[in-house]
């Protein structure tokens, strides 16, 4: 991996998380985004706090130019760069999904906590030419209420965010106003 992939910044507030401006190499990020835009088998899912298009990347027939995003070498690289600064415990990958949000869609405040089944999440944003006018900011909160917003993270193309899942890991995605917002979601749990 290039030195451009070494800009990870870890923070402990409002909950443990790490951010990088370049989680994937540009060519791989572009290949995945092109597939997401043109041929990926998206399915709409509606829950109480969100509506989004999803797909399980382990179950999808990935083109050869997209498969490296799930390769063991890539997962290990993302893990060591983004998750190792957040925990001393060994983690194992549980699944990799992708999300697509369209204008008008939002993800309300939630914490992803479902016990020990998943303990860490790593998000890779794939959003070409994304601007603040598009909406879709990842918002981190210090509590479960809108006024508890502590940090906004722009979903820049090929950027990444990793965080520990806990009862305190409140986050949301602001309403999409323009464009399509794509994310690869790597989920992990503690090895024991």
Topology:
Elements: E1 9-11, E2 17-20, H1 26-38, E3 43-46, E4 51-56, H2 72-83, E5 91-101, E6 107-110, E7 120-126, E8 138-141, E9 149-153, E10 160-164, E11 171-173, E12 181-190
Antiparallel strand pairs: 1-2, 2-10, 3-4, 4-5, 5-12, 6-11, 7-10, 7-12, 8-9, 8-11
Number of helices: 2
Ends: how far apart? 29 Å
- Tell me the count of domains: 1
For the secondary structure, the number of strands is: 12
The helix/strand class is mainly beta
Question: Which topology does CATH recognise?
Answer: Jelly Rolls
Biggest sheet overview: 8 strands, antiparallel
- Main sheet: strand order: 1-2-10-7-12-5-4-3
Strand content: 25-35%
Radius of gyration: 15 Å
Give the full name of the CATH homologous superfamily: q2cbj1_9rhob like domain
Order of helices and strands: EEHEEHEEEEEEEE
Low-confidence stretches: none
Bulk shape: globular
